[in-house]
Amino acid sequence: MMVSLALVLALVEAILRLADPIGQNHEVEFDRYRQEALRYAWDGLPPARLGSVDLDGMLYHHKPSLDIDFGSYRLRTNSLGYRGPEISKPKPAGTFRILVIGDSVAYGTGVNDEVTFLRRWESELNAAGKQRFEVINTGHPMYDSTQELALLRDEGLALQPDLVLLVYVVNDIEPTRDVVESALLGKAPLPGETLPDPGDFWTRAADLCAPILPSTAKLLRLQSDPALRMLSTMPKGTEYVPELFGKGPRGWPRSQRAVLDMKALCAKANVPFFLLDHTLPALRALPGFCEQNQIPYFLFRFSPDELARPIRNSLMDSHSNAAGHEVLLGKLRAIAIHLPLPR
């Protein structure tokens, strides 16, 4: 009996490693992305000068003119370090330029550039033939609102956009700057920012398997929902609302300030600014914040029915696959009716 169980577990582990049905490649690819695709604000600084890094600036940026095959997708950047085709810094005459800022949702983790909803939207706009359009994708995985503001301020507006779209996600209130501050300067998280995790059957089984069956352990851990584990330690009826838990109470006010600064910068440059809400789970305070501050707001997240469809790259990579980008493109088409585009 034990021998048979051991053989079954060994077979499962072999299948998980060789066929990778759960998407373990995402971890490898993301490590390569961080190591090969990015230049960091602290590159070349001696330890004594790490404190000089501007934590409210762009902490990292794509290297220019990249062409990297990560396995599941290819990353090509232009000479400005943005994903997509080459563009000139001065806006060409007769071109309507749309600047999109965001994180991995806008960037399009796991799919080639031509598959992303932004590049397909650009193609559709240009296919109409009435005007030349450029959609500049400045998305960087793990960007928060502070870094998006820095990119808009330091680079984006210099590109003379006619329209700015912010694809807003939960990462916007989970500050990457705090992760960097902890790693570079050793600053500990604030009390209460580390969410309780009591574990459950699946996580305990994964812990037992991890030393000898690491892939099986990952499969087991995927059967458990971290948010539900955390909520199990709280009063009955408590709901997970991102702005109220973990880094949310600190990150949400900071994000609000950054979004208001983005709006002000765009207003000063006479450029329309719109926010597309792709928060999953939903940031419930965001629509009211936008309404109160007269920020044009559009719902851009997946519905429960859409989430039930195969629109993810894999079990371990929740980013949109080609089908997911098709859904996002459909949402963007509906939103575009309300945008100040040339008709």
N-to-C terminal Cα separation, in Å?
A: 71 Å
By helix and strand content, what is the structural category? alpha/beta
Helix content: 25-40%
Determine the mean pLDDT.
94
CATH structural architecture: 3-Layer(aba) Sandwich
The count of strands amounts to 9
Element order, helices and strands?
Answer: HHEEEEEHHEHEHHHHHEHEHH
Q: How many strands, which pairing sense, and closed or not: the largest β-sheet?
A: 5 strands, parallel
Strand order of the largest sheet: 6-5-7-8-9
Q: In words, what does this structure look like?
A:
The mean pLDDT is about 95. This protein starts with a helix and ends in a 7-residue tail after the last helix. The chain is of the alpha/beta class and about 350 residues long. β8 (about 275), α11 (about 285-290) and β9 form a beta-alpha-beta unit. The chain has a single domain (about 25-180, about 240-335), classed as SGNH hydrolase (Rossmann fold, 3-Layer(aba) Sandwich), CATH 3.40.50.1110. It has 13 helices and nine strands. The relative contact order is 0.13. Strands 6-5-7-8-9 form a five-stranded parallel sheet. It has a two-stranded antiparallel ribbon with strand order 1-2. α4 (about 115-125) packs across α13 (about 320-335).
